[in-house]
Each structure stands twice: as C-alpha cells, then as structure tokens.
Amino acid sequence: MISVIEMLGIKREYRMEASTPKAGAPSNADTVVVHALRGVDFFAEAGEFVSVMGPSGSGKSTLMNILGCLDKPSAGTYFLDGIETSSSDSDTFAYIRNRKIGFVFQSFNLLARTTALENVELPLFYRRANKDEKKLGARARKERAMQALEEVGLANRMDHFPSQLSGGQQQRVAIARAIVNDPAFILADEPTGNLDTGMSLEIMGLFQQLNKRGKTIIMVTHELELAAYSRRIIALRDGKLVSDINVEDQRDALKDLAVWKKKHARLAEKTHEL
C-alpha cells in the first residue's frame, strides 16, 4: 500500500508569557512552555478511514492543524503524499492545502450567496497547477463540480443556495467541494457536530461509500459512536498517541440509518395517535 501520511516524532510546543516579567529577572523567567504534542508517530495508507479521538487538551486539534498544513511542528517530520511538509515554504503549503487535502468542517463553511455548484467550483477556480499542468477552463471546472455533486447525491440540488438546503445537504456540498480536486485525503473536523441523528448517519454513510471507492479519510471526533463507522481509531492523551486499534466490527451507517428511520416513524405514529 502507498503511504499518504507519514508522521515521525511530531512535537508542538507553544511558548506563552505567564505574567509581566519582574525588573532584573531573566527574559525567559515568566515563559510557560505548553507541550501540545510530545513526539507523535502516525502513519496512514491510501484507502484508510481513521478516526482521531481524545479528551479536551489531548492534542487532537493541534494534530489536525498539522495534518491539514495549517500549522508546522516544532520538531519531527511529516510527509504528505511524498512531500516533506515540515520545512516547506508558504507557496508549497498553499499548494498542499489546495491539492492534497480536502477539508470538511463542522460549520460547513459555504458561501451563502453562491449556489451549491459554485461553492464546489471554488477550489478549482483557485487550483494551483503543477508546471506541467494546464489551467482548467470554465467548462472543465463546471463539469468536475457537477460530477462531485453527483457523487454525493446532490445532482438535483446544484442550483440551490445554502439557505435552500438542509444541514445534511449543506454538508454534502462541503464534501463535494472537498473531493473535487481529488485530494490525497479528506480531513473532516467533527463533520456531524451541527447535525441531528438522522443527518449524521447520512453523512457517515456517505463517508463509508467514498472510502469504499478508495478515498482516504481522517476524521476528528469526540464521539465513539461515530468512530465506530471508521476502520481504525487512534486516541491521544496529554499530547501522546496512546492507542491505535483496527475496528474489527465496523458499523454500517446506512443500515443504522434505516433502523433509525423505522423507529422514528413508529414514534411519530404513536404521537399522532395520542
């Protein structure tokens, strides 16, 4: 298998001023060093679906920022799809974020005054091409965006604005936007945090479908029930990776959704009878 993510000895330290230094005191006397990550080794191969878990303060948000090339480690190496990111310049970082990572956020982050199709086209409009690549034209961008929306089941919602879509549909648009550049992996940060149970199961079902088609997914979550839909779970505590397990009995989100809908329908019937 091809390694998409290779992290070795990743550390992240933050230096903070604890208080106003006293006159005559050494310049670093009141500096507090926060060790957010303490030498994390993490590897993910193409086609994996990994959940990242941990309590508040465990370092999972810091790890997510480094995975997404939104921050650099204080020490260690991070190869993303063969590119060493730890010492990359700003242009390389921008290229990686645009071409190698598909971001999916809890709050969707869609532009309110643009259609679903236009939202998905945005990464293509700002697409950073290699020197051997041709710039995508308007027609090619539109075709790719349409294909991505079809892949997430929104072929009939392309001209709708975010306000005309449900929360689950908005997240599907966000996922289409994430995959439109065919990234090395999808990085999802609490992707169902703003959704109810039914819509959450829909999104997890979509992630499972994309994963079966070969998409690599790294999902940050604090819910073990959601992590059970992935194939592998890593856990952080106090800045260290404390467990890394394969999910032996992966749950099927779409089957769970069907069961949930039946229970919901029965409850609605009983409520109506009352």
Describe this structure in words.
With 274 residues, the chain is α/β, with parallel strands linked by helices. It has a domain at 3-100 and 183-273: Rossmann fold (3-Layer(aba) Sandwich), CATH 3.40.50.300. 35% of the residues lie in helices and 25% in strands. It has eight helices and ten strands. The chain has helices at residues 60-67, 90-99, 116-125, 138-151, 167-179, 197-212, 224-227, 253-273; strands spanning 3-17, 31-45, 49-53, 75-80, 83-84, 101-104, 185-189, 217-220, 232-237, 240-246. The strands form two sheets. Strands 6-7-8-3-9-10 form a six-stranded mixed sheet, sandwiched between helices. Strand 4 and strand 5 form a beta hairpin. Helix 4 (138-151) crosses helix 5 (167-179) and helix 5 runs parallel beside helix 6. The longest helix has 21 residues, at 253-273. It starts with a strand and ends with a helix. The mean pLDDT is 91.
Can you give keywords for this protein?
alpha/beta; Rossmann fold; 6-stranded mixed β-sheet; 4-stranded antiparallel β-sheet; 25% strand; globular
Tally the helices. 8
What structural category characterises the helix and strand content?
A: alpha/beta
What gap, in angstroms, lies between the N and C termini? 57 Å
Query: In which order are the strands of the major sheet placed?
Result: 6-7-8-3-9-10
Major sheet summary line: 6 strands, mixed
According to CATH, what is the class of one domain?
Alpha Beta
Helical fraction equals 25-40%
Order of helices and strands: EEEHEEHEHHHEHEHEEH
Shape: globular
Write down how many β-strands occur, each being a DSSP E stretch of 2 or more residues. 10
Overall pLDDT level: 91
User: From the coordinates shown, what is the CATH architecture of one domain?
Assistant: 3-Layer(aba) Sandwich
